[in-house]
Amino acid sequence: xxxxxxxxxxxxxxxxxxxxxxxxxxxxxxxxxxxxxxxxxxxxxxxxxxxxxxxxxxxxxxxxxxxxxxxxxxxxxxxxxxxxxxxxxxxxxxxxxxxxxxxxxxxxxxxxxxxxxxxxxxxxxxxxxxxxxxxxxxxxxxxxxxxxxxxxxxxxxxxxxxxxxxxxxxxxxxxxxxxxxxxxxxxxxxxxxxxxxxxxxxxxxxxxxxxxxxxxxxxxxxxxxxxxxxxxxxxxxxxxxxxxxxxxxxxxxxxxxxxxxxxxxx
Length: 266
Hints:
The protein is α/β, with parallel strands linked by helices. It has 2 domains: about 15-205, 2-enoyl-CoA Hydratase, Chain A, domain 1; about 210-255, Lyase 2-enoyl-coa Hydratase, Chain  A, domain 2, CATH 1.10.12. Helix content is about 50%, strand content about 15%. It contains 11 helices and 9 strands. It has helices at about 35-50, 75-80, 80-100, 115-125, 150-160, 160-170, 175-180, 195-205, 210-220, 230-245, 245-255, and strands spanning about 15-20, 20-25, 60-65, 105-110, 115, 125-130, 135, 175, 185-190. The chain has a 6-stranded mixed beta sheet, sandwiched between helices. A 3-stranded mixed beta sheet has the order 5-7-8. α1 (about 35-50) runs parallel beside α3, α4 (about 115-125) packs across α5 (about 150-160) and α9 (about 210-220) runs antiparallel to α10. The longest helix has 21 residues, at about 80-100.
């Protein structure tokens, strides 16, 4: 099933399906996809729909127009700073936790600008591909606020505490190549190749062992909260659960037959 939604002026976020790949497309291009309350609520609704669908085996986050996302909507925050922040962050945080709990890998497709919450979201993705020429900025300090949407959790784990503090405290923009060097993104591609790169990766992941992907995501993300004995026990439990799946039996049989496995995500 392809492109079950098309861009309209009234939808702040588009949920599109192409087979087992679900695309969540931020759709406020006139505001560089800055998140306001309707977009935050639409994001949560879309993530809840995707998380409840076992047929979704890869998720893509992207933005319409000239940018991925320029952060929170300052008009909303200017009108009512405290309540505006609560109304935006409550659904965003709920959506983020659902994405992290999903077995399906989450891919960020980034171009133009990724600032504030836009950078935070890509930090929380499982795989990030960025177009050449993209500008990134944590940006929060320039508005006199701390960060949100998981940035303070993800950034130190990716770049280390010292570098994370530099990025956060200086609030300076950096390039896609800088982000690649720091390990913030996985690949930088020419802007004209971004869509193809994302489609190829998403289709590859969408035909993989989805339950094993979920186990691997949780093991990696939770490893820094555990001691080594605790992590070894978690690995054992996860491996045993995966060993009971159809995909594991498929993978083992394909190995013995010297064939490429055809995983069903079960």
